[in-house]
Design brief:
By secondary structure, this protein is mainly alpha-helical. It is 71% helix and 1% strand. Strands 1-2 form a two-stranded parallel sheet. Helix 12 runs parallel beside helix 14.
Length: 418
């Protein structure tokens, strides 16, 4: 029984985003789409416990949700013309076979999911609301996880999501991929949220696991769709190159016991060479298009420096430091500056890193950011200041809510004591 419950929950996590996307397109209401998706899960928990998980679970869930939508619209007696239009559209699809629904869900262009992302990135929504809403709907992240991703608090994020949903409903936003100038205007926000989804998969902000591979896979899928739709857009290709190269290291980020393995200690034989080649090819295309100076292209170039080094000691840290100098000008942020400090510490010594990281000590956005004291601890340890390093690692562990990361930080603190 418990195994079936786990299987159902796993299926729902996988299918949730596409389910909400399809339902939002039909109902024109994000809140209603989420409710219907949840209702479909409750029905599945009853039906599948009796008969097992169906061959096409995504299609089954969509069919169940659509039937609930029809019943709901009819229950409200078609109060408005809008409801009547939705009901007619749903009625036309009510008798679709499971195979037909599954085929629609597996649309190679991913129009429904991309349509949901572009709707969530509409100009009527504030920039911070766009990212938060998309992470909630598409990434399936909790409000707590989104708050940590934005270095914010839960109440603020919850309010952003609520305002964003209301703005979509009030403006009557279409759940479809726009064209022309409108597509270009929304593209930066779309790229941002796709990368945020990827990052949550690559380095989970909370929980027992370091990585959440399904989120990385979904972000990669969306990035590849965008690249196929816009093959001459440098930043789309830059983001795809960055994600391909980063994803190549997923299998090496944790040891056999699940513990975090830092980049410099990873077994590079476990890096996925096919993903690296894909990323390097996309980066070469960016450079051919003259887009090497864009923020995603620069980050992809940074990832490529690591991918090209056969051994950790072969890494060109001076080039990485120079690339971070450029990235800091193109995309200034405290997090970029922290990574720049790490690069300078590797290229020019720990004291250089300490000099840079100390300038970030008063940055409000990094006040509860575990990587800041973790980086400082590393610089102090390499500088031979073990007692100070121990305190920094312990401070970082106290801020981390990822169990594996916290274990690693505490182990580093203990090593300083020894």
């Amino acid at each position: 029984m418990e195994d079936i419950h786990r299987a159902i929950e796993a299926v729902f996590r996988i299918e949730r985003a596409r389910l909400i996307a399809g339902l939002a397109r039909l109902t024109r209401d994000v809140d209603r789409a989420e409710e219907l998706a949840q209702d479909a899960l409750l029905v599945a928990l009853t039906e599948w416990l009796r008969g097992g998980v169906p061959d096409n679970p995504g299609a089954w869930l969509m069919t169940a949700a659509k039937r609930r939508a029809i019943d709901g619209v009819r229950h409200h007696a078609m109060r408005t013309r809008k409801h009547a239009e939705i009901a007619r559209e749903l009625d036309e699809e009510r008798d679709m076979s499971a195979e037909a629904v599954e085929a629609a869900l597996d649309d190679p262009l991913g129009d429904e999911l991309l349509g949901l992302i572009f709707a969530a990135c509409h100009p009527v929504i504030s920039p911070d609301g766009r990212a938060a809403l998309t992470l909630r709907l598409v990434g399936g992240l909790t409000v707590e996880e989104i708050a940590r991703a934005f270095l914010s608090n839960e109440a603020t994020i919850a309010a952003r999501i609520t305002r964003a949903k209301k703005a979509i409903a009030k403006a009557g936003v279409a759940f479809e991929v726009p064209r022309g100038a409108e597509l270009a205007a929304r593209l930066p926000s779309v790229l941002e949220v796709v990368y945020l989804i990827f990052n949550e998969g690559y380095a989970a902000t909370a929980g027992p696991a370091l990585v959440r591979p399904p989120l990385c896979a979904e972000a990669l899928r969306l990035g590849r769709i965008l690249a196929a739709l816009m093959p001459d857009e440098p930043e789309v290709l830059g983001l795809l190159a960055l994600m391909e190269i980063q994803a190549s290291r997923l299998a090496a980020r944790a040891g056999p016991d699940g513990r975090f393995v830092p980049l410099t200690e990873q077994n590079r034989a476990r890096w996925d060479q096919l993903l690296i080649r894909r990323g390097l090819n996309a980066l070469a295309r960016v450079e051919a298009l003259g887009g090497a100076g864009g923020p995603y292209a620069l980050q992809a170039a940074l990832a490529a420096c690591h991918a090209r080094a056969r051994r950790a000691e072969d890494t060109d840290w001076r080039r990485i430091a120079a690339l971070y100098d450029r990235l800091g000008q193109v995309m200034p942020s405290p997090v970029v500056e922290l990574n720049r400090a790490i690069a300078h510490s590797m290229a020019f010594g720990p004291e250089a890193g300490l000099a840079l990281v100390d300038t970030l000590a008063d940055a409000a956005v990094l006040r509860n950011y575990a990587p800041l004291p973790a980086a400082r601890g590393d610089f102090l340890l390499r500088a031979g200041r073990k007692a100070e390093a121990k305190g920094a690692f312990e401070a970082a562990a106290a801020l981390s809510v990822n169990e594996r990361e916290r274990e690693w930080l505490l182990a580093r603190a203990a090593a300083c004591a020894n």
